[in-house]
Amino acid sequence: MNLHEYQGKEILNSFGVEIQRGIVAQTPAEAVEAAKKLTEETGTGWHVIKAQVHAGGRGKGGGVKLAKNLQEVEQIAGDIIGMNLITPQTSAEGKKVHQVLVTEDVYYPGDSEPEEYYMSVLLNRANGKNMIMYSTEGGMDIEKVAEDTPHLIFHEEIDPSLGLMGFQARKIAFNLGLSGKAFKEMTKFVSALYKAYTNSDSSLFEINPVLKTSDDKIIAVDAKVTLDDNALFRHKDYEAMRDIREENEAEVEAKAVGLNYVDLDGNVGCMVNGAGLAMATMDLIKQAGGEPANFLDVGGTADAERVEAAFNLILKDPNVKAILVNIFGGIVRCDRVAQGIVDAYKSIGTVRVPIIVRLQGTNADIAKKLIDDSGLDVHSVIEFQEAADKVQEVLS
Amino acid sequence: MSVLVNKDSKIIVQGFTGSEGTFHAEQMIEYGTNVVGGVTPGKGGQSHLDRPVFNTVEQAVKKTGADTTIIFVPPAFAADAIMEAANAGIKVIITITEGIPVADMIKAADYIKDLDCRLVGPNCPGVITPGEAKVGIMPGFVFKSGKVGIVSKSGTLTYEAADQVVKQGLGITTAIGIGGDPIIGTTTKEAVELLINDPATEAVVMIGEIGGQLEAEAAQWYKESGSKKPVVGFIAGETAPAGRTMGHAGAIVGGSDDTAQAKKKILAECGIHVVNSPAEIGKKVAEVLG
């Protein structure tokens, strides 16, 4: 589950990670109030207004702006709230901004120059251990840093039973070129950050930038936090942070009925049992000259209710020209799924696109007969290749 | 011959009396698998499906001599069940449970790494040696005994591949579902290695998907091994968008080297017979076996 910057910072701060302070606002008036309050609490003169959407690269799309007085706070907040923010990570239409984070200005002048670093915590799948990845090149696109200057990216692997060790935190601070107070602050920052990562059951922390202020404090200026969905049962309070406005409508609906669905741009919908077979089916659609309109795993119990919900979901997409159902019956019997398809079809009434059903495995023959005898406009096939050929046929 | 499980395996079921455990244990017993008992904490001393129930894996091992376990324990307790099995001396730990928190699996994988055991899964369909033992949730009738080994991250795609192989008049030595999670016990490379080293296996089908480096690692190993046994490979997810999780928690394209296209390229470079269409797995196997 992805979080907004302000939510991620809340979690970080609850474990002692120093952050750039801010208050979230839904309207320009709220933004002005937030700015006043921040000035009272932090003494900040200027404010930064940041769009809160689940996408990176917000600054590039005009979603992060500096306000030098309250009038500017109101005006900028008014501009950003309600805009469709287009960033390198959003679709071409962009993402609607519902709220902004009004923050203190942390790039104030002082005894030393502010410095930006990059830091993330994530799982290294190659060895099953968490690692801290960091770089002196903060505030930049890290993929680009990795490509252009890979020697400026460092990794620190964390031992699963021992956790982050003191020398590792020191090593990170030294590699970032810090000394004196800033060095000490960085070791504290890294330790708190790792503690926050494990205690919140996160699967990704990306802090870009981590800032050394002109008075040698170390703070998180941004926070991208992804929580492990499988561990949410341990964190009921985080579950409330889900913002379904940020998620695809069809995907939210699918989730509510227990379907695993990913919305795509193509013209052939599909309904499959099992994630691997679902991906393979999408690939087959492409090879047959179509483009998959979705990923949809109906799971182990493909009964009439779920099949109907799945059909309805797919049919909502006006681009869909055909639907391919691919079920490998194992424990689930194909004839039961076929009955589900027939019932769902009748219940929906008019289905405006051809449906190709491929049922294989337990009772596949009975299932094919059931569909063929139903009198519905459903093409039934048994082999995978036949299904592909049929897709090609109905598309042409 | 076969790998991991056979007719002599003494199998226990952890989460034996739960609904999933009961249903699949029944199916396994019906298939002829040697299920010697099960574990459900607090229900020790009872009998279930005509087999004894134990409170701990340790007791089950002591009383039945079990060497293999299949885990149906709910996600919140499954990592603990894996560690308990390893601690009790179980040699093959097959974990079906889907949805185990990553943090729990990091700990479990670290705990069992120095113990004499092999974890398969989690989030996998299990392992089947046709005609001998079905230690998983796969439909047994699809798998006929023969000379082709299968390694796969996916459940239904494994059944699909097995079905295609069988329809070519061939059969399966052992099919290993390694699972689709970011952290799994037996890797693609280890499973391929087991099958390549199995005298009865004459060809291997390796089915992967987007995300991670497991298939590339297996392909490198195969190339370096110099093995003459043919391997047929398929990678699902050519059409999957980057950065999205496709059903399996581990099926997510993170960079340029874990896309289906990149993986297929590496496989082909390492001498693996890559099929582009998932409908051609069986045909390709028949072709490479001549």
TrEMBL record, chain A:
Residues 271-390 form the ATP-citrate synthase/succinyl-CoA ligase C-terminal domain. ATP binds at residues 50, 57-59, 106, 116. Its cofactor is Mg(2+). Residues 2-210 form the ATP-grasp fold succinyl-CoA synthetase-type domain. It catalyses: succinate + ATP + CoA = succinyl-CoA + ADP + phosphate; GTP + succinate + CoA = succinyl-CoA + GDP + phosphate. Its EC number is 6.2.1.5. Pfam families: ATP-grasp_2, Ligase_CoA. Substrate binds at residues 273, 330-332. GO terms for biological process: succinyl-CoA metabolic process; tricarboxylic acid cycle. One of its GO terms (molecular function) is succinate-CoA ligase (GDP-forming) activity. InterPro entries: ATP-grasp_succ-CoA_synth-type (IPR013650), ATP_grasp_subdomain_1 (IPR013815), Succ-CoA_synthase_bsu_CS (IPR017866), SUCC_ACL_C (IPR005811), Succ_CoA_ligase-like_bsu (IPR005809), Succinyl-CoA_synth-like (IPR016102). One of its GO terms (cellular component) is succinate-CoA ligase complex. Mg(2+) binds at residues 208, 222. Pathway: Carbohydrate metabolism; tricarboxylic acid cycle; succinate from succinyl-CoA (ligase route): step 1/1. Keywords: ATP-binding, Ligase, Magnesium, Metal-binding, Nucleotide-binding, Tricarboxylic acid cycle. Binds 1 Mg(2+) ion per subunit. It comes from the Bacteria. PANTHER family: SUCCINATE--COA LIGASE [GDP-FORMING] SUBUNIT BETA, MITOCHONDRIAL, SUCCINYL-COA SYNTHETASE BETA CHAIN. NCBIfam families: PRK00696.1, sucCoAbeta. Belongs to the succinate/malate CoA ligase beta subunit family. Succinyl-CoA synthetase functions in the citric acid cycle (TCA), coupling the hydrolysis of succinyl-CoA to the synthesis of either ATP or GTP and thus represents the only step of substrate-level phosphorylation in the TCA. The beta subunit provides nucleotide specificity of the enzyme and binds the substrate succinate, while the binding sites for coenzyme A and phosphate are found in the alpha subunit. Heterotetramer of two alpha and two beta subunits. This is Succinate--CoA ligase [ADP-forming] subunit beta. It comes from Cochleicola gelatinilyticus.
UniProtKB/TrEMBL annotation, chain B:
SMART domains: CoA_binding (SM00881). Pfam families: CoA_binding (PF02629), Ligase_CoA (PF00549). Heterotetramer of two alpha and two beta subunits. Its EC number is 6.2.1.5. The active site is at residue 248. GO terms for molecular function: nucleotide binding; succinate-CoA ligase (ADP-forming) activity; succinate-CoA ligase (GDP-forming) activity. Keywords: Ligase, Nucleotide-binding, Tricarboxylic acid cycle. The keyword Ligase applies. Belongs to the succinate/malate CoA ligase alpha subunit family. CoA binds at residues 17-20, 43, 96-98. PROSITE patterns: SUCCINYL_COA_LIG_1, SUCCINYL_COA_LIG_2. It comes from the Bacteria. This is Succinate--CoA ligase [ADP-forming] subunit alpha. Residues 4-100 form the CoA-binding domain. It comes from Cochleicola gelatinilyticus.
